[in-house]
Amino acid sequence: MIILHHLRIGRSVFTAWLIEELGLEYEAKIYVRNEMGRAPPELKGAHPLGKSPVIEHDGMTLAESGAIATYLIDLFDAENTLAPPRSDVKARAVWNQWLAYSEASAFAPFLFKLLLSREQQPHPPVISAFASGEVALQLGYIRDQLGDRPFILGDRFQAPDVGLTYILSMARRLNELDGHPTLGAYLDRNLARPAFQRAFARTGG
Amino acid sequence: MIILHHLRIGRSVFTAWLIEELGLEYEAKIYVRNEMGRAPPELKGAHPLGKSPVIEHDGMTLAESGAIATYLIDLFDAENTLAPPRSDVKARAVWNQWLAYSEASAFAPFLFKLLLSREQQPHPPVISAFASGEVALQLGYIRDQLGDRPFILGDRFQAPDVGLTYILSMARRLNELDGHPTLGAYLDRNLARPAFQRAFARTGG
Prior knowledge:
The first copy, chain A, has about 200 residues and is α+β, with helices and mostly antiparallel strands. In chain A, about 50% of the residues lie in helices and about 10% in strands.
Protein backbone atom coordinates (compact mmCIF):
# COMPACT_ATOMS: atom_id res chain seq x y z
CA MET A 1 0.00 0.00 0.00
CA ILE A 2 1.18 3.50 -0.82
CA ILE A 3 0.75 6.18 1.85
CA LEU A 4 0.71 9.72 0.48
CA HIS A 5 1.35 12.52 2.94
CA HIS A 6 -0.74 15.31 1.49
CA LEU A 7 -0.59 18.95 2.52
CA ARG A 8 -3.70 20.89 1.55
CA ILE A 9 -3.59 22.92 -0.65
CA GLY A 10 -0.45 22.31 -2.61
CA ARG A 11 1.71 20.28 -4.90
CA SER A 12 0.88 16.83 -3.61
CA VAL A 13 -2.52 16.65 -5.30
CA PHE A 14 -0.41 16.18 -8.42
CA THR A 15 1.24 13.10 -6.94
CA ALA A 16 -2.21 11.79 -6.02
CA TRP A 17 -3.17 12.37 -9.65
CA LEU A 18 -0.20 10.36 -10.92
CA ILE A 19 -1.13 7.53 -8.55
CA GLU A 20 -4.71 7.69 -9.88
CA GLU A 21 -3.45 7.61 -13.49
CA LEU A 22 -1.59 4.41 -12.60
CA GLY A 23 -4.76 2.96 -11.04
CA LEU A 24 -3.05 2.21 -7.71
CA GLU A 25 -4.50 1.93 -4.23
CA TYR A 26 -3.30 4.53 -1.75
CA GLU A 27 -4.04 6.08 1.59
CA ALA A 28 -3.95 9.87 1.74
CA LYS A 29 -2.87 11.31 5.09
CA ILE A 30 -4.11 14.86 5.01
CA TYR A 31 -2.49 17.87 6.68
CA VAL A 32 -3.95 21.38 6.66
CA ARG A 33 -1.98 24.65 6.50
CA ASN A 34 -2.23 27.07 9.42
CA GLU A 35 -3.60 30.60 9.03
CA MET A 36 -0.15 31.79 7.87
CA GLY A 37 -0.22 29.28 5.01
CA ARG A 38 2.54 27.15 6.58
CA ALA A 39 2.51 23.37 6.94
CA PRO A 40 1.70 22.02 10.41
CA PRO A 41 4.70 20.67 12.39
CA GLU A 42 3.28 17.11 12.30
CA LEU A 43 4.32 16.87 8.68
CA LYS A 44 7.95 16.77 9.90
CA GLY A 45 7.10 13.38 11.32
CA ALA A 46 6.70 12.15 7.76
CA HIS A 47 9.81 13.86 6.37
CA PRO A 48 12.39 16.21 7.92
CA LEU A 49 11.65 19.01 5.45
CA GLY A 50 8.03 19.04 6.61
CA LYS A 51 6.71 19.39 3.06
CA SER A 52 4.69 17.33 0.68
CA PRO A 53 4.39 15.25 -1.41
CA VAL A 54 6.06 12.49 0.52
CA ILE A 55 5.18 8.84 0.01
CA GLU A 56 5.79 5.75 2.06
CA HIS A 57 5.92 2.43 0.27
CA ASP A 58 7.36 -0.94 1.16
CA GLY A 59 9.37 0.42 4.10
CA MET A 60 10.78 3.41 2.23
CA THR A 61 9.99 7.13 2.57
CA LEU A 62 10.52 9.24 -0.54
CA ALA A 63 10.29 12.97 -1.31
CA GLU A 64 10.64 15.15 -4.44
CA SER A 65 7.80 14.88 -6.95
CA GLY A 66 9.94 13.75 -9.89
CA ALA A 67 11.72 11.05 -7.89
CA ILE A 68 8.38 9.78 -6.60
CA ALA A 69 6.96 9.71 -10.13
CA THR A 70 9.97 7.81 -11.45
CA TYR A 71 9.82 5.29 -8.61
CA LEU A 72 6.12 4.58 -9.09
CA ILE A 73 6.51 4.29 -12.84
CA ASP A 74 9.50 1.97 -12.50
CA LEU A 75 7.48 -0.30 -10.24
CA PHE A 76 3.96 -0.09 -11.60
CA ASP A 77 3.90 1.18 -15.20
CA ALA A 78 4.86 -2.07 -16.89
CA GLU A 79 3.05 -1.07 -20.08
CA ASN A 80 4.87 2.26 -20.43
CA THR A 81 1.78 4.41 -20.49
CA LEU A 82 3.29 7.37 -18.59
CA ALA A 83 6.92 7.09 -19.75
CA PRO A 84 8.86 5.63 -22.66
CA PRO A 85 10.53 2.29 -21.91
CA ARG A 86 13.89 2.45 -20.13
CA SER A 87 15.47 0.73 -23.12
CA ASP A 88 14.79 3.82 -25.26
CA VAL A 89 17.55 5.89 -23.66
CA LYS A 90 17.05 9.00 -25.77
CA ALA A 91 13.28 9.18 -25.43
CA ARG A 92 13.68 8.58 -21.74
CA ALA A 93 16.25 11.40 -21.51
CA VAL A 94 13.85 13.89 -23.09
CA TRP A 95 11.08 12.64 -20.82
CA ASN A 96 13.41 13.06 -17.84
CA GLN A 97 14.32 16.58 -18.94
CA TRP A 98 10.66 17.58 -18.97
CA LEU A 99 9.96 15.77 -15.72
CA ALA A 100 12.81 17.68 -14.05
CA TYR A 101 11.94 20.97 -15.72
CA SER A 102 8.80 21.77 -13.77
CA GLU A 103 10.65 21.44 -10.47
CA ALA A 104 13.98 22.87 -11.63
CA SER A 105 14.13 25.72 -14.18
CA ALA A 106 10.42 26.50 -14.15
CA PHE A 107 9.57 26.61 -10.48
CA ALA A 108 11.58 29.42 -8.84
CA PRO A 109 10.27 32.28 -11.05
CA PHE A 110 6.66 31.41 -10.25
CA LEU A 111 7.43 31.09 -6.55
CA PHE A 112 9.01 34.56 -6.69
CA LYS A 113 5.88 35.95 -8.33
CA LEU A 114 3.70 34.32 -5.71
CA LEU A 115 5.69 35.74 -2.80
CA LEU A 116 5.94 39.16 -4.46
CA SER A 117 2.15 39.22 -4.68
CA ARG A 118 2.05 38.90 -0.89
CA GLU A 119 4.41 41.83 -0.17
CA GLN A 120 2.72 44.99 1.09
CA GLN A 121 5.60 47.32 0.19
CA PRO A 122 6.74 48.45 -3.24
CA HIS A 123 8.38 45.61 -5.06
CA PRO A 124 12.13 45.12 -4.87
CA PRO A 125 13.49 45.97 -8.32
CA VAL A 126 16.06 43.18 -8.78
CA ILE A 127 13.71 40.39 -7.76
CA SER A 128 10.72 41.89 -9.60
CA ALA A 129 12.65 42.22 -12.85
CA PHE A 130 14.04 38.72 -12.52
CA ALA A 131 10.64 37.16 -11.81
CA SER A 132 8.85 38.96 -14.66
CA GLY A 133 11.54 38.17 -17.22
CA GLU A 134 11.81 34.54 -16.19
CA VAL A 135 8.07 33.90 -16.07
CA ALA A 136 7.72 35.24 -19.61
CA LEU A 137 10.68 33.17 -20.77
CA GLN A 138 9.41 29.94 -19.21
CA LEU A 139 5.85 30.34 -20.51
CA GLY A 140 7.15 31.02 -24.02
CA TYR A 141 9.32 27.92 -23.81
CA ILE A 142 6.43 25.69 -22.74
CA ARG A 143 4.14 27.23 -25.39
CA ASP A 144 6.69 26.64 -28.15
CA GLN A 145 7.34 23.06 -27.07
CA LEU A 146 3.63 22.34 -26.86
CA GLY A 147 2.84 23.87 -30.26
CA ASP A 148 -0.47 22.43 -31.40
CA ARG A 149 0.05 19.05 -29.80
CA PRO A 150 -2.31 17.88 -27.08
CA PHE A 151 0.43 17.00 -24.58
CA ILE A 152 3.96 18.19 -23.95
CA LEU A 153 5.63 15.15 -25.51
CA GLY A 154 3.10 14.61 -28.29
CA ASP A 155 -0.20 12.78 -28.62
CA ARG A 156 -0.03 10.90 -25.38
CA PHE A 157 -0.40 12.11 -21.80
CA GLN A 158 2.75 11.26 -19.80
CA ALA A 159 4.21 12.03 -16.36
CA PRO A 160 5.80 15.38 -17.32
CA ASP A 161 2.31 16.72 -18.09
CA VAL A 162 1.56 16.38 -14.38
CA GLY A 163 4.34 18.71 -13.26
CA LEU A 164 3.59 21.20 -16.02
CA THR A 165 -0.03 21.30 -14.90
CA TYR A 166 1.22 22.38 -11.48
CA ILE A 167 3.33 25.16 -12.99
CA LEU A 168 0.52 26.36 -15.25
CA SER A 169 -1.95 26.28 -12.37
CA MET A 170 0.35 28.67 -10.53
CA ALA A 171 0.63 30.77 -13.68
CA ARG A 172 -3.15 31.01 -13.98
CA ARG A 173 -3.53 31.98 -10.33
CA LEU A 174 -1.00 34.75 -10.95
CA ASN A 175 -2.93 35.94 -14.06
CA GLU A 176 0.01 35.07 -16.26
CA LEU A 177 -1.88 32.86 -18.72
CA ASP A 178 -4.06 35.53 -20.31
CA GLY A 179 -1.81 35.91 -23.35
CA HIS A 180 -1.35 32.17 -23.82
CA PRO A 181 -4.58 30.54 -25.02
CA THR A 182 -2.89 27.26 -26.01
CA LEU A 183 -1.46 26.92 -22.52
CA GLY A 184 -4.84 27.65 -20.97
CA ALA A 185 -6.46 25.00 -23.15
CA TYR A 186 -3.70 22.50 -22.29
CA LEU A 187 -4.19 23.19 -18.58
CA ASP A 188 -7.95 22.72 -18.87
CA ARG A 189 -7.45 19.49 -20.82
CA ASN A 190 -5.23 18.08 -18.08
CA LEU A 191 -7.42 19.21 -15.19
CA ALA A 192 -10.44 17.59 -16.85
CA ARG A 193 -8.87 14.13 -16.79
CA PRO A 194 -10.89 11.72 -14.65
CA ALA A 195 -7.77 10.74 -12.70
CA PHE A 196 -7.14 14.36 -11.72
CA GLN A 197 -10.78 14.78 -10.75
CA ARG A 198 -10.58 11.69 -8.55
CA ALA A 199 -7.36 12.92 -6.92
CA PHE A 200 -8.88 16.31 -6.23
CA ALA A 201 -12.02 14.82 -4.73
CA ARG A 202 -10.00 12.43 -2.60
CA THR A 203 -7.43 14.92 -1.25
CA GLY A 204 -9.31 18.22 -1.29
CA GLY A 205 -6.73 19.80 -3.62
CA MET B 1 31.57 13.36 -28.83
CA ILE B 2 29.74 15.34 -26.16
CA ILE B 3 29.44 19.10 -26.62
CA LEU B 4 28.89 21.03 -23.41
CA HIS B 5 27.51 24.55 -23.73
CA HIS B 6 29.10 26.25 -20.77
CA LEU B 7 28.16 29.66 -19.40
CA ARG B 8 30.85 31.20 -17.24
CA ILE B 9 30.49 31.43 -14.29
CA GLY B 10 27.67 29.13 -13.31
CA ARG B 11 26.14 25.75 -12.84
CA SER B 12 27.57 24.03 -15.90
CA VAL B 13 31.05 23.55 -14.42
CA PHE B 14 29.28 20.89 -12.36
CA THR B 15 28.19 19.06 -15.51
CA ALA B 16 31.77 19.31 -16.79
CA TRP B 17 32.85 17.76 -13.49
CA LEU B 18 30.42 14.85 -13.90
CA ILE B 19 31.75 14.27 -17.42
CA GLU B 20 35.30 14.32 -16.02
CA GLU B 21 34.33 11.83 -13.30
CA LEU B 22 33.09 9.52 -16.06
CA GLY B 23 36.36 9.97 -17.95
CA LEU B 24 34.62 11.06 -21.16
CA GLU B 25 35.85 13.22 -23.99
CA TYR B 26 33.98 16.49 -24.49
CA GLU B 27 34.17 19.83 -26.17
CA ALA B 28 33.30 22.85 -24.01
CA LYS B 29 31.73 25.77 -25.89
CA ILE B 30 32.24 28.70 -23.60
CA TYR B 31 29.93 31.71 -23.22
CA VAL B 32 30.65 34.71 -20.99
CA ARG B 33 28.09 36.74 -19.04
CA ASN B 34 27.60 40.41 -19.85
CA GLU B 35 28.28 43.19 -17.35
CA MET B 36 24.74 42.70 -15.94
CA GLY B 37 25.52 39.07 -15.17
CA ARG B 38 23.14 37.82 -17.89
CA ALA B 39 23.91 35.11 -20.43
CA PRO B 40 24.73 36.31 -23.96
CA PRO B 41 21.94 35.85 -26.55
CA GLU B 42 24.07 33.36 -28.52
CA LEU B 43 23.34 30.76 -25.87
CA LYS B 44 19.76 30.70 -27.14
CA GLY B 45 21.15 29.09 -30.26
CA ALA B 46 22.03 26.07 -28.15
CA HIS B 47 18.75 25.93 -26.22
CA PRO B 48 15.65 28.17 -26.22
CA LEU B 49 15.97 28.99 -22.51
CA GLY B 50 19.42 30.46 -23.17
CA LYS B 51 20.89 28.85 -20.05
CA SER B 52 23.45 26.24 -19.27
CA PRO B 53 24.30 23.44 -18.82
CA VAL B 54 23.09 22.13 -22.16
CA ILE B 55 24.70 19.17 -23.88
CA GLU B 56 24.60 17.89 -27.41
CA HIS B 57 25.24 14.22 -27.99
CA ASP B 58 24.44 11.86 -30.81
CA GLY B 59 22.01 14.28 -32.47
CA MET B 60 20.18 15.20 -29.29
CA THR B 61 20.18 18.41 -27.26
CA LEU B 62 19.46 18.07 -23.56
CA ALA B 63 18.99 20.55 -20.70
CA GLU B 64 18.44 20.28 -16.92
CA SER B 65 21.43 19.12 -14.87
CA GLY B 66 19.76 16.06 -13.37
CA ALA B 67 18.43 14.82 -16.71
CA ILE B 68 21.87 15.28 -18.28
CA ALA B 69 23.51 13.39 -15.41
CA THR B 70 21.03 10.52 -15.70
CA TYR B 71 21.50 10.30 -19.47
CA LEU B 72 25.29 10.21 -19.27
CA ILE B 73 25.22 7.65 -16.47
CA ASP B 74 22.73 5.46 -18.35
CA LEU B 75 25.02 5.48 -21.36
CA PHE B 76 28.50 5.53 -19.92
CA ASP B 77 28.55 4.34 -16.30
CA ALA B 78 28.38 0.63 -16.96
CA GLU B 79 30.18 -0.14 -13.71
CA ASN B 80 27.74 1.84 -11.54
CA THR B 81 30.34 4.09 -10.00
CA LEU B 82 28.12 7.21 -9.84
CA ALA B 83 24.73 5.57 -9.33
CA PRO B 84 23.31 2.29 -8.02
CA PRO B 85 22.30 -0.17 -10.73
CA ARG B 86 18.86 0.33 -12.27
CA SER B 87 17.87 -3.10 -11.05
CA ASP B 88 18.06 -1.87 -7.43
CA VAL B 89 14.85 0.14 -7.66
CA LYS B 90 14.84 1.39 -4.06
CA ALA B 91 18.47 2.49 -3.97
CA ARG B 92 17.95 4.18 -7.31
CA ALA B 93 14.86 5.98 -5.98
CA VAL B 94 16.81 7.42 -3.04
CA TRP B 95 19.62 8.40 -5.42
CA ASN B 96 17.06 10.03 -7.70
CA GLN B 97 15.53 11.91 -4.77
CA TRP B 98 18.92 13.41 -3.89
CA LEU B 99 19.73 14.11 -7.51
CA ALA B 100 16.45 16.01 -7.89
CA TYR B 101 16.76 17.71 -4.52
CA SER B 102 19.54 20.15 -5.39
CA GLU B 103 17.55 21.49 -8.32
CA ALA B 104 14.11 21.23 -6.76
CA SER B 105 13.55 21.86 -3.03
CA ALA B 106 17.02 23.25 -2.33
CA PHE B 107 17.58 25.73 -5.13
CA ALA B 108 14.93 28.46 -4.87
CA PRO B 109 15.78 29.60 -1.30
CA PHE B 110 19.43 30.15 -2.23
CA LEU B 111 18.47 31.97 -5.41
CA PHE B 112 16.24 34.26 -3.31
CA LYS B 113 19.14 34.98 -0.95
CA LEU B 114 21.41 35.74 -3.88
CA LEU B 115 18.97 38.18 -5.47
CA LEU B 116 18.16 39.77 -2.10
CA SER B 117 21.86 40.45 -1.65
CA ARG B 118 21.75 42.52 -4.84
CA GLU B 119 18.82 44.71 -3.81
CA GLN B 120 19.73 48.27 -2.80
CA GLN B 121 16.53 48.92 -0.88
CA PRO B 122 15.42 47.49 2.46
CA HIS B 123 14.51 43.88 2.08
CA PRO B 124 10.92 42.87 1.38
CA PRO B 125 9.67 41.17 4.55
CA VAL B 126 7.76 38.22 3.05
CA ILE B 127 10.56 37.15 0.73
CA SER B 128 13.30 37.80 3.29
CA ALA B 129 11.58 35.71 5.95
CA PHE B 130 10.90 32.93 3.48
CA ALA B 131 14.48 32.84 2.21
CA SER B 132 16.07 32.87 5.68
CA GLY B 133 13.78 30.19 7.05
CA GLU B 134 14.17 27.95 4.03
CA VAL B 135 17.95 28.27 3.80
CA ALA B 136 18.27 27.25 7.46
CA LEU B 137 15.87 24.35 6.92
CA GLN B 138 17.66 23.05 3.83
CA LEU B 139 21.15 23.30 5.35
CA GLY B 140 19.97 21.46 8.47
CA TYR B 141 18.46 18.75 6.29
CA ILE B 142 21.66 18.25 4.29
CA ARG B 143 23.76 18.30 7.48
CA ASP B 144 21.59 15.66 9.15
CA GLN B 145 21.59 13.42 6.09
CA LEU B 146 25.35 13.74 5.74
CA GLY B 147 26.05 13.03 9.43
CA ASP B 148 29.63 11.91 9.69
CA ARG B 149 29.71 10.15 6.35
CA PRO B 150 32.06 11.34 3.64
CA PHE B 151 29.39 11.63 0.93
CA ILE B 152 25.65 12.22 0.89
CA LEU B 153 24.74 8.60 0.18
CA GLY B 154 27.51 7.01 2.26
CA ASP B 155 31.11 6.06 1.66
CA ARG B 156 31.11 6.53 -2.07
CA PHE B 157 31.00 9.69 -4.17
CA GLN B 158 27.96 9.60 -6.49
CA ALA B 159 26.15 11.97 -8.86
CA PRO B 160 23.98 13.67 -6.19
CA ASP B 161 27.17 14.95 -4.53
CA VAL B 162 27.73 17.06 -7.64
CA GLY B 163 24.47 19.00 -7.32
CA LEU B 164 24.88 19.39 -3.57
CA THR B 165 28.32 20.88 -4.16
CA TYR B 166 26.65 23.53 -6.32
CA ILE B 167 24.13 24.34 -3.57
CA LEU B 168 26.79 24.46 -0.86
CA SER B 169 29.04 26.65 -3.05
CA MET B 170 26.17 29.13 -3.22
CA ALA B 171 25.69 28.80 0.54
CA ARG B 172 29.36 29.55 1.18
CA ARG B 173 29.29 32.60 -1.11
CA LEU B 174 26.30 33.85 0.88
CA ASN B 175 28.16 33.28 4.19
CA GLU B 176 25.61 30.69 5.21
CA LEU B 177 28.06 27.88 5.98
CA ASP B 178 29.77 29.42 9.01
CA GLY B 179 27.71 27.44 11.52
CA HIS B 180 28.04 24.18 9.58
CA PRO B 181 31.60 22.83 9.80
CA THR B 182 30.67 19.38 8.48
CA LEU B 183 29.09 20.92 5.39
CA GLY B 184 32.16 23.11 4.84
CA ALA B 185 34.43 20.06 5.10
CA TYR B 186 32.17 18.10 2.71
CA LEU B 187 32.25 20.96 0.21
CA ASP B 188 36.06 21.18 0.42
CA ARG B 189 36.35 17.41 -0.01
CA ASN B 190 34.27 17.51 -3.18
CA LEU B 191 35.99 20.56 -4.67
CA ALA B 192 39.37 18.93 -4.11
CA ARG B 193 38.54 15.97 -6.34
CA PRO B 194 40.84 15.79 -9.37
CA ALA B 195 37.86 15.59 -11.73
CA PHE B 196 36.45 18.87 -10.37
CA GLN B 197 39.85 20.49 -10.63
CA ARG B 198 40.14 19.40 -14.26
CA ALA B 199 36.64 20.67 -15.04
CA PHE B 200 37.39 24.02 -13.43
CA ALA B 201 40.67 24.40 -15.32
CA ARG B 202 39.00 23.43 -18.59
CA THR B 203 35.90 25.62 -18.34
CA GLY B 204 37.05 28.54 -16.21
CA GLY B 205 34.38 27.85 -13.57
